[in-house]
Amino acid sequence: MKKISIPVLFVLVVSAFSSCVVLSPKKHNALLAQRDSLSLGWEAARARIVSLEEEIASLKSDTSSLHARIAGLEGNVTGLNENLNSLRSNSSSEISRLSADLQKREARLKEVEEILRKRDEATNALRDKLQKALLGFQQSGLSVDIRDGKVYVSLTDKLLFSSGSIVIDDRGKLALQELAKVLKTQPEINISVEGHTDNQRVVNLGQIKDNWDLSVLRATSVVRFLTEGEKIENNRITATGKGEYQPIEQGSTPDARSRNRRIEIVLSPKLDELYNLIK
What we know:
The chain is an alpha+beta fold. Helix content is 63%, strand content 13%. It contains 7 helices and 5 strands, in the order H-H-E-E-H-H-E-H-E-H-E-H. The chain has helices at 6-20, 25-133, 157-160, 170-184, 211-229, 254-260, 272-278, and strands at residues 142-147, 150-156, 189-196, 237-243, 262-269. It has a 5-stranded mixed β-sheet. A hairpin with a 2-residue loop joins strand 1 (142-147) and strand 2 (150-156). The longest helix has 109 residues, at 25-133.
């Protein structure tokens, strides 16, 4: 059955009624005004319905957009949680690795410290032994001290050599013999013999051209005495000449120059165990 809208039905009713009933002009005009008012109200209602339908469509669109955005944010949160869990796992592994590495390093450090402690003990014991053995020569320009973990036996040139000479005199040989007695009991000690001069220019010394020559030849004289005369092992000992370039006294006074003219016998413990640790 075909539907008839209310305004049309109203017009039909009014028309039918008008055709059957004769109205006064006043009532007729009132009915017309009422019809026009109802028609305007209906149009306003239709416009409001259209506006509401548009608003509903917009709200549905916004709701759909919000749902999509929420889904995207939930996906981001899931991804962030996965990254966080991965970072926590990686951090835990890295912390474990670093902790194990730190423990190894601490163990190595303790080993090195123990070796250095033993070295220092051995160095101090060697110094004390040498000071006792060479006590009788300390008034003649001999000294024993420790520098940088090594024992230095310093002998002024007047204890070992005549002026400008590279031949060891008798007093110097006695001092070196006492030194050799101690060194023979210390096979783990390396020996370096260093020759030093003052800064006075060498003159009239034959084959000795300068202070370099003089320092080297005096050092080799001491090395030959210790190896050939006192039978110290050759592979334990070296000879070097420092010339005038490592003075222990500044100035040009006779006493300062005398202190700089010296033989230094440097004794250092073998540290093979330490070197193996730090390779």
